């Protein structure tokens, strides 16, 4: 589903990230950026989707165990905090070895994202599988989509 | 888990198979570093499972591909997407010192670790300096 989402993705792929960032810096497009927008490639990456009943947040945090991520919500701002340990091979003993690429983020991170209003944080649930966390925040009853029956006059 | 690496010694014509089928492939972030007896490659592929991962060595090129498997309910509308794609893909050219028969890989919490062992005669040997 997110694969169809072209309106948020003006670059054809992440391959152009560095180029986009460069262009963004050199030629700011003059439009106001969302106050909580981040450059692409931040860790962890976040997708948000909504259904009639709930808002679903997908956090792409490879390498984090369920205990490594803390998820807080206040008002409508979701805050993700955690730490990703460097892989074995970055320790002191092997630091003398050549490193050819180090693209993966490690260490502490905090990310916050604004969600739509009217979510019931009390009934929120989170799941984890294969390095992706899914947070489901149900909408408050009074804000759920409702079908209005047309009555025969 | 050696069986996840498929060998294709026969050099096949470059078909651009993966590129034409699905134009949007995400580039996984990788760390690559060297041990005395092996090269190590670590790739972030969140949402990729052991079954949706495809590793291949073809004509000295290592291909990593993986489908993102998310269990999403029907009828979702996207509000915000930093990951817009269903698939990770990246390719690396191997040097001749890598023993491609012995490559092994594992995926754990969306982190792929590939060990590329070096051939015996390419391993680091320390040369002792003798006293005169």
Automatic annotation (TrEMBL), chain A:
Q: Which SUPFAM superfamilies match?
A: HSP20-like chaperones (SSF49764)
Taxonomic lineage from the root: Bacteria, Pseudomonadati, Pseudomonadota, Gammaproteobacteria, Oceanospirillales
- Its family? Belongs to the small heat shock protein (HSP20) family.
**Domain SHSP intervals:** 37-153
Q: Which InterPro entries match?
A: A-crystallin/Hsp20_dom, HSP20-like_chaperone, Small_HSP
What is this protein's record name?
Answer: Heat-shock protein Hsp20
Pfam families on file: HSP20
UniProtKB/TrEMBL annotation, chain B:
What is the protein name for this chain?
A: Heat-shock protein
Superkingdom in the source lineage: Bacteria
What Pfam families does the annotation carry?
HSP20
Gene3D superfamilies tied to this protein: 2.60.40.790
Similarity annotation: Belongs to the small heat shock protein (HSP20) family.
Family matches, as CDD domains: ACD_sHsps-like
Write down the InterPro entries for this protein, in alphabetical order.
A-crystallin/Hsp20_dom, HSP20-like_chaperone, Small_HSP
Positions of the UniProt region annotated as Disordered: 1-23
All copies of the SHSP domain together span 21-132
PROSITE patterns assigned to the protein according to its UniProt record, in alphabetical order: SHSP
């Amino acid at each position: 589903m997110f694969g169809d989402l072209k309106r948020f993705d003006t670059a054809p792929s992440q391959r152009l990230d560095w180029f986009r960032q460069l262009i963004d810096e050199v030629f700011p497009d003059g439009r106001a950026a969302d106050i909580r927008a981040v450059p692409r490639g931040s860790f962890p990456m976040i997708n948000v989707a909504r259904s009639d009943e709930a808002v679903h947040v997908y956090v792409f945090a490879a390498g984090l165990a369920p205990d490594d991520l803390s998820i807080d919500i206040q008002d409508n701002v979701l805050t993700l905090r955690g730490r990703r340990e460097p892989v074995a091979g970055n320790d002191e003993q092997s630091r003398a070895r050549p490193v050819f690429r180090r693209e993966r983020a490690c260490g502490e991170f905090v990310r916050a994202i604004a969600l739509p209003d009217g979510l019931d944080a009390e009934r929120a649930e989170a799941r984890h599988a294969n390095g992706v966390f899914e947070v489901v925040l149900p909408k408050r009853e009074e804000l759920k989509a409702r079908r209005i029956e047309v009555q025969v006059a | 888990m050696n069986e996840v690496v498929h060998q294709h010694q026969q050099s096949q014509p470059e078909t651009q198979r993966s590129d034409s089928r699905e134009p949007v492939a995400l580039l996984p972030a990788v760390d690559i570093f060297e041990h005395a007896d092996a090269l190590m490659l670590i790739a972030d592929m969140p949402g990729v499972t052991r079954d949706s991962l495809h590793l291949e060595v073809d004509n000295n090129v290592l291909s990593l591909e993986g489908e993102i498997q998310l269990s999403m309910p029907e009828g979702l509308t996207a509000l915000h997407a930093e990951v817009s794609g269903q698939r990770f893909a990246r390719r690396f050219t191997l040097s001749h010192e890598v023993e491609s028969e012995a490559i092994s890989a594992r995926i754990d919490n969306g982190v792929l670790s590939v060990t590329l062992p070096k051939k015996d005669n390419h391993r680091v040997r320390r040369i002792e300096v003798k006293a005169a």
